[in-house]
Recover the amino acids of this structure.
């Protein structure tokens, strides 16, 4: 009989499939993982501590750098928290611009998740197609905000810029284009036999596990839990749009893949309706004092980011800086289930499972 | 085998599609007017109100003013103005608070250099950075 020896294997911190600087120490027996320990903190910048010495407007560029694949939702959560504390009513036009920017960001983020996941599994070309279409979104957001990733677009009480001329029409034309492309994506990957063999029934967890581990976003919905804050606790103007919550019951990597792709379709629905209902004119900033001081007290808000529930807790003592700021960063929580999923798996499935969780290290480390 | 064939068909279809890559750096990237690139500074417009220095989230702007050389005029004029591009995140807040639009963004973004010291830009350099300046600065 062959005797095998346990071996320690370091994956990362510099490893292309960890999507950033993430280290995973795995103990393997032959090819089977017996223990996995994620080591995080390589990208820790202390956003929450830095924010204690910054004015609210100054914190917004820092939030861009947490989940850098969908910076608009991060912009929104901090503005939403301060607006809730101060009781500011955001103008309708600004709300529409925010929702459209956030949904474009969600699509861009899911396209990266899709492309890089297939890349992790060994296919190169889908990644290029995903980035081709994402580039169009990035260009649109660049026209709107003046940056490609770190938008710094939202302000407490509204948005910085109004939509440039023809921008809404550009979004309207983009919706049918991407719908067509999505069909191509399914043709290219969803039915591919090798891909299905790699992801079907891999990394399965139950509904109870998902809830116990505080998972959110596609990771939660892939187990059949119908929970989306855009529907269940509508913020901004999401209650005006007709869209569905995408769920799957299997709870495996393939389910998470399908949830993400279908969420793109739902986001396109929202964009289509937002373009139709977009107000012809209106203010983009509410009346806010020049120096923003949140009243004494505390507030916690949560919204649905592409990766799950992103929350923002502010404790203020009435000064222009927060006394304490805390972000509930969905990637960090979603990552916690990884050691449980990896035990007993083949080493080749490690990347397939990690990729399906879809973490962004800027957000994990904060 | 059907899945493979479908995928291959999609890939082959792409061969006839138009190219989407840019010929950078031979051709400059098309960028919108709002793009946030390296700042252009107009010393004659600056009233030394210090707002840009105070709003900067990374504290990368340093400036000093001096008395107006013309004794009949009140106020200060700018003496030195430095931006440290090692830590500047081009967040646009300095141009947003400037009451006289003395500092505006440009479309220039190439900052790579051989030493860190070269990322420390002074008043003269920022004044000379006058290409592709943003046209509409305030929303």
């Amino acid at each position: 009989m062959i005797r095998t020896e346990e071996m320690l294997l370091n994956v990362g911190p510099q490893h292309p499939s960890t999507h950033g600087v993430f280290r995973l120490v795995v103990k393997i027996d032959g090819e089977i993982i017996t223990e996995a320990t994620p080591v995080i903190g390589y990208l820790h910048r202390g956003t929450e501590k830095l924010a204690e010495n910054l004015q609210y407007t100054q914190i917004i560029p820092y939030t861009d750098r947490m989940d850098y694949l969908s910076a608009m939702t991060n912009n929104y959560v901090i503005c939403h928290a301060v607006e809730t504390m101060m009781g500011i009513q955001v103008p309708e036009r600004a709300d529409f611009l925010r929702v459209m920017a956030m949904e474009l960001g969600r699509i861009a983020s899911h396209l990266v998740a899709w492309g890089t996941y297939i890349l992790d599994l060994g296919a190169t070309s889908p990644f290029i197609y995903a980035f081709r279409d994402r580039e169009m979104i990035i260009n649109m957001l660049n026209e709107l905000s003046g940056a490609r990733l770190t938008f710094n677009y939202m302000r407490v009480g509204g948005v910085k810029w109004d939509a440039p001329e023809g921008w809404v029409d550009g979004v309207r034309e983009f919706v049918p284009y991407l719908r067509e492309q999505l069909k191509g994506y399914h043709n290219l990957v969803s039915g591919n036999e090798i891909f299905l063999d790699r992801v079907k029934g891999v990394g399965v967890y139950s509904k109870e596990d998902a809830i116990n581990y505080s998972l959110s976003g596609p990771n939660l919905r892939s187990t059949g839990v119908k929970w989306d804050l855009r529907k269940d606790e509508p913020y901004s103007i999401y209650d005006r749009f007709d869209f569905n919550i995408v769920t799957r019951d299997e709870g495996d990597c393939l389910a998470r893949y399908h949830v993400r792709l279908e969420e793109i379709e739902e986001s396109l629905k929202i964009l289509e309706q937002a373009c139709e209902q977009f107000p012809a004119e209106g203010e983009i900033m509410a009346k806010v004092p020049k120096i923003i001081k949140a009243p004494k007290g505390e507030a916690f808000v949560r919204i649905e980011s592409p990766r799950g529930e992103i929350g923002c807790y502010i404790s203020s003592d009435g000064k222009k800086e927060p006394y304490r700021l805390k972000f509930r960063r969905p990637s960090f929580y979603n990552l916690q289930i990884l050691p449980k999923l990896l035990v007993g798996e083949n080493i080749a499935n490690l990347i397939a499972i990690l990729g399906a969780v879809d973490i962004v290290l800027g957000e994990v480390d904060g | 085998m059907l899945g493979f064939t479908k995928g291959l068909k999609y890939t082959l279809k792409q061969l006839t599609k138009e190219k989407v890559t840019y010929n950078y750096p031979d051709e400059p990237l098309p960028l919108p007017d709002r793009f946030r690139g390296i700042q252009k500074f107009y010393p004659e417009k600056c009233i030394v109100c210090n707002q840009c220095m105070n709003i900067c989230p990374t504290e990368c702007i340093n400036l000093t003013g001096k008395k107006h050389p013309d004794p009949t005029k009140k106020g200060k004029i700018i003496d030195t103005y430095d931006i440290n591009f090692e830590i500047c995140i081009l967040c646009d807040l300095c141009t947003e608070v400037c009451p006289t639009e003395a500092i505006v963004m440009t479309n220039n973004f190439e900052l790579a250099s051989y030493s860190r010291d070269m990322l420390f830009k002074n008043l003269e350099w920022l004044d000379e950075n006058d290409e592709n300046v943003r046209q509409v600065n305030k929303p």
Q: What stands out?
A: Chain B is about 20% helix and 15% strand. Residues 30-138 of chain B form a domain with the Alpha-Beta Plaits fold (CATH 3.30.70.3270).
